[in-house]
Amino acid sequence: MLEINSTLFIQIGNFLLLVFLLNIFLYRPIRRVLSQRNQETNSLEKTIADYQERSEEDEKNIADRMVLARKEGYSEKEGFKGRGREEEKGILQETNSSVEEKIGSARKEMEIRLAEARERLEDELGSFSRELAQKILGRDI
Fold first, then answer.
1. CA distance readout (Å), 27 to 5, 13, 15, 32, 99
2. pTM above 0.85, yes or no
3. What pLDDT score was predicted for residue 1?
4. 3-class SS letters over 54-105
């Protein structure tokens, strides 16, 4: 059986001394290392969270800028289209006016030639009618 004597107190003293020494040489350094590791992990997690927030903000800014750039590009494209249409209208008006001038001058020239041809035909009408009558009648007139 278990006897209570002086060795029991020596064993209790040894146990307490061992716990005290283990605490000083083993448990405290391990707890310190674990505490430092937790602090570093927490600081790294905070840094990671900050970088993630920054990257999300940057992505949002980039997306906003892209939308703005697309809007600006679309408005510029529409502006270019409008200017192109205006230039096209101007070119078509110039072309139409020059074509109308050419048609007008061609009509005038045709009218002049037609008048000249009518005058020549009227001048020659008498001789044509005389020749026709001679051919129909078969004798000189």
1. 31, 19, 15, 8, 104
2. no
3. 65
4. HHHHHHHHHHHHHHHHHHHHHHHHHHHHHHHHHHHHHHHHHHHHHHHHHHHH
Residues 93 and 121: their CA atoms lie apart, in Å, by: 41
Residue 7: C-alpha distances to residues 13, 123, 127 (Å): 10, 166, 170
Q: Which tens digit of pLDDT belongs to each residue from 10-59?
A: 999 999 999 999 999 999 999 999 999 999 999 999 999 999 999 999 99
What CA–CA distance (Å, rounded) separates 9 from 15? 10
Span of 14-23, 79-88, 120-129 with lowest mean pLDDT: 120-129
Cα→Cα distances 92→29, 54, 61, 101, Å: 91, 55, 46, 14
Q: Are 134 and 141 in contact (CB under 8 A)?
A: yes
- The CB-side HSE value for 63 (13 A sphere, CA atoms) comes to 6
How is the chain split among helix, strand and coil, in percent rounded to 5? 95, 0, 5
